[in-house]
Amino acid sequence: MTKPARLxxxxxxxxGSATAASAADFxxxxxxxxxxxxxxxxxxxxxxxxxxxDIDYHWSNFKDADYVTxxxxxxxxxxFGDLRGAWSFGAGVGYQANKYFRTDLTxxxxxxxxxxxxxxxxxxxxxCQSVDESSYSxxxxxxxxxxxxxxxxxxxxxxxxxxxxxxxxxxxxxxTVGGVTTVHEGTDEWRFAWALMAGASYCLxxxxxxxxxxxxxxxxxxxxxxxxPVAGPGFDEGIDVHEVRGGLRYQFGGSSRCAPPPPAYExxxxxxxxxx
Length: 276
Fold this sequence. Notes:
Layout: H1 3-24, E1 48-62, E2 65-70, E3 73-83, E4 86-98, E5 101-123, E6 126-148, E7 155-170, E8 173-177, E9 180-184, E10 188-203, E11 208-219, E12 222-225, E13 231-236, E14 239-251
Antiparallel strand pairs: 1-4, 1-14, 2-3, 2-13, 3-5, 4-5, 5-6, 6-7, 6-8, 7-10, 8-9, 10-11, 11-14, 12-13
InterPro entries: Beta-barrel_OMP (IPR027385), OMP/PagP_B-barrel (IPR011250)
Keywords: Signal
Signal peptide: 1-23
């Protein structure tokens, strides 16, 4: 091999070694996959059926009553009439349309409220007064709608209104004058009723809510008692009922407003490529 050829070969080998050494100093970074997109949690609080059970204590306001008199012919009225408070209980089924609106149908039984009243008139031409005693109970059916105002720490305030009917049952009226008691047969009839309510619910679990509130119910007037010697029938002018209520609602399928909040999204850190 001639000297120029040997110099050329040596130069080529030297150049190749330098190129290989330079390539060995560079380290290709590993392939890093992009992190998955964050999970979007959608609040779904619609299409939910529920059942409910309630107990309450209520106070009834007796508006007044008129009755027919025959000696002399005409009409009479009570000087006053008082109704005592009583317990009641009820149940219902409803539908949560969305997180701001729900409806339900309820049935309540009002236990007996004792009635005490007084009338004034003439007995044998002389002024006299009577002591009147009875009691009433009722079965109340209402279709209700509620507006709800969001949930804070598991508490959801609401207002509502209802419309329906009440079957009022008056017991016999005992009319006592001078130690003599006349019994007027009581009545049992359906009457128109409506209600207004306000309250709040509290999440006990995902499915169970505690409900507490106030309801005002207005029952129209109607027949109170039948004829007995010298007087009757009698007609009351309606009853206003104030109720303090408490109960439980069971939401089928659960309620998103009662579920714990989803975990906060934390992106996966991307490590920078390493060069050597």
